Amino acid sequence: MHLSPDADCAGFFAQAREQGVSSFLLAGTSLQNAEFVCSLAAAEEGVYAAVGLHPHEAQQFEASHLEQYAAFLQRPKVLAVGEAGLDYHYNHSAPDAQRLAFSAFVQLAQDKQKALVVHCREAFDDCYAIVKEQWRSGLRFVLHSFTGTVPEAEKWLELDAYISFNGMLTFKKADNIRQALQAVPLEKLLLETDSPYLAPVPYRGKSNCSAYLPKIAEKMAELKGLPLSEIARITNENARRLFGIDCDSVSN
Ligand SMILES: [Zn+2]
Q1: What was the pLDDT predicted at 245?
Q2: Half-sphere exposure of residue 189, counting CA atoms within 13 Å on the CB side?
Q3: Element (H, E) at 234
Q4: What's the CA-to-centroid distance between 70 and ligand 1, angstroms?
Q5: How far apart are CA 11 and CA 167, in angstroms?
Q6: Are 130 and 103 within 8 A, CB to CB?
Q7: Distance (Å, whole) CA 104 – CA 242
Q8: Residue 10 falls within a domain, yes or no?
Q9: Which tens digit of pLDDT belongs to each residue from 64-115?
Q10: Does residue 83 fall inside a structural domain?
Q11: How far is the CA of 207 from the centre of ligand 1 (A)?
């Protein structure tokens, strides 16, 4: 999930906690918002942070920034590198710049032994090649807001990836995403909102928030043929293993 500094952050978390969501991963998108996400994590119970550079912002990447990211990663509730990845849908940054930055963040996650939150949109071949080339045993990473195909999910799983699904699972025309979900074994599944984007049905079109996470969990439970409580337990355990946290519910 993402929050902006002008949001009612305390209200946002309170509303989610009322719905049974008690742990949150705030994803960074640039060096500029790293301080904000890390400070909010330090101040709010159950809130954790990731620091990274979204592929849309990759043109700002400079190798000299890695030291500053590394310093953020030393703070106690900063659990992951991310978002990082490739997005060829908009190409807000040139593909070359995106690949350069992404490689550096994969390396950073490995060096610092932190989880990596990967954003991959319409860029499977290059994204997979970069992770595979640098992959060393022990790399913990998640494909967030997964929108790929079944064969793509299978390739990621060969690298021991976790795969995270958001509110698109509830969208009428998202059969491809529901098929991908079926290809992911339970021990590799995560749930997320990607708030403020992609609110699940029946809130579609509204600004998304972590309080809507149970709607996504319900859909996942239905599709996997399991009780909601079982999906909650499994995704909690997976998040704990991936990020190294103790939690009841995690809203990415
Ligand atoms: Zn993303």
Answers
A1: 80
A2: 24
A3: helix 228-243
A4: 21
A5: 21
A6: yes
A7: 20
A8: no
A9: 999 999 999 999 999 999 999 999 999 999 999 999 999 999 999 999 999 9
A10: yes
A11: 16
Domain containing residue 47: CATH number: 3.20.20.140
Structural domain count, the chain: 1
Q: Which of 30, 120, 96, 110 is nearest to 69 (CA)?
A: 30
Residue 232 in domain: yes
206: containing domain: 19-251
CA of 149 to the centre of ligand 1 (A): 17
Count of Cβ atoms closer than 10 Å to residue 41 Cβ: 22
Question: CA quadruple 55, 57, 59, 60: dihedral positive or negative?
Answer: negative
Beta-strand relationship, 189-191 and 141-143: unpaired
56 CA → ligand 1 middle, Å: 10
Backbone angles phi, psi at 139, to 5 degrees: -65, 125
The number of angstroms, rounded, from the C-alpha of 30 to the middle of its chain's C-alpha atoms is 15
DSSP secondary structure letters along 18-83:
HTT--EEEEEP-SHHHHHHHHHHHHHSTTEEEEE---GGGGGG--GGGHHHHHHHHTSTTEEEEEE
Question: What pLDDT, on the 0 to 100 scale, is given for residue 6?
Answer: 86
Decide if 111 is inside a domain.
Answer: yes
Q: Spell out, as residue ranges, where the chain has pLDDT lower than 50.
A: 247-249
Could you tell me the CA-to-CA distances from 19 to 16, 149, 211 in Å, in that order?
5, 31, 6
Q: 187 C-alpha vs ligand 1 centroid, how far in Å?
A: 22
